[in-house]
Amino acid sequence: MYRVLLVDDEILVLKSLEAGVNWRKSGFQVAGKAHNADQALQLAAEIKPHIVFTDIRMPGMSGLELMKKMKETDEQILFVVISGYAEFEYVKKSLHYGVLGYCLKPFDDEEIDVLLHSAAAILEENKLKRQNSLLELLDEGVTEYSQHRVDQILTEAGLTAGEFHVLVALGKGTLELEENDRWVGFKLGNDKYGFFVQFAHPQAFERLLTSRFPDCWMGVGVVTTARDMKSMTKNLELASVRAWDFFLHGRAGYFRGNDPGREAMAARLVKQLTDAVGQKKFRAGAGAPRCLATEGKQGMFNDQGCAENL
Fold first, then answer.
1. CATH code, 2-123
2. Which terminus of the chain has fewer Cβ atoms in its 10 Å neighbourhood, N or C?
3. Residue environment code for 142-155, b if the CB has 16+ CB neighbours within 10 A, otherwise e
4. Cα dist. 176→7, 162, 215, 225 in Å?
């Protein structure tokens, strides 16, 4: 869900806007409400909103000043101006700050739905750009610029902590993360996906690990990483190895490691699979190689459509 921050000095306006719009239908949730610009800035630092609906005229800092300050810390944040008919000319000035649109009071639900649809399209495009940029930067290696850009991309996605989790999943689907978890995902290959996740609290992480494992995944490797690129790259590789532990354990699930012997065996199996794919020794049209023998011996593949004669 994309996070929305509502800002207006009139309590009734905030209540009307929150209750009168089906936010979830468009993929949004109201994450915070503020009665003035100063409170909005504090909330924005905590919840990292994707879009802000703000009044223009408020006591103290104006909506225009608020947008300017927020843009300084998050260039991709979106704005919708809410205003009365008498302030229409003033609203035009806000277009200078690149606002998505404006809503005149009283609110038109259909008009807001159209704006949310446009916002979702922009946010999805921005997300895709972040994912592609992140992978390219990690592939290029560590420089002062690349580390700065990686930090920037993570922050834009809401990952602000010094440590977070790396998850690599084999299969197809989505992770069942909670609304307040922050994450950025990317495709690593055929039926292989990576995620950097900052869980809202330790209980959210434990709930994920103990919840019913999704049928769409075979194995998910889990590692904790520091924020620097060297650690992220290393732990992305380690999570990839752990994801293949479903071969060794004979079951699907989340795998956190803790057994050096099994991890070494999994690493050898991953290399074996990689080499086999590189040499095109998999049968054409074969699906995910679920049938790899779990003994971890060199060349142990069976004849159920995975690989042969290694």
1. 3.40.50.2300
2. C
3. eeeebbebbeebbe
4. 30, 23, 12, 20
Report the SS3 class of residue 216: coil
Task: Compute the distance between CA of residue 240 and CA of residue 243 in angstroms, rounded to an integer.
Answer: 5
CB-based contact 103:87 (threshold 8 Å): no
Beta bridge partners, 221, equal 168, 255
The correct answer on CATH 3.30.70.270 for the domain covering 141-258 is yes
Q: What is the DSSP letter of 9?
A: S
Q: What are the average pLDDT values for consecutive 10-residue runs of the chain, which has 310 residues?
A: 94 92 93 96 92 91 91 90 70 72 83 93 90 89 92 90 95 84 90 94 91 90 95 94 87 78 58 58 41 33 30
State how far the alpha carbon of 142 is from the alpha carbons of 149, 238, 257, in Å. 11, 18, 27
Taking the model in full, what pTM does it have? 0.67
228-245 tens-digit pLDDT: 999 999 999 999 999 988
Contact of 242 with 222, CB cutoff 8 Å: yes
End-to-end CA distance of the chain: 46
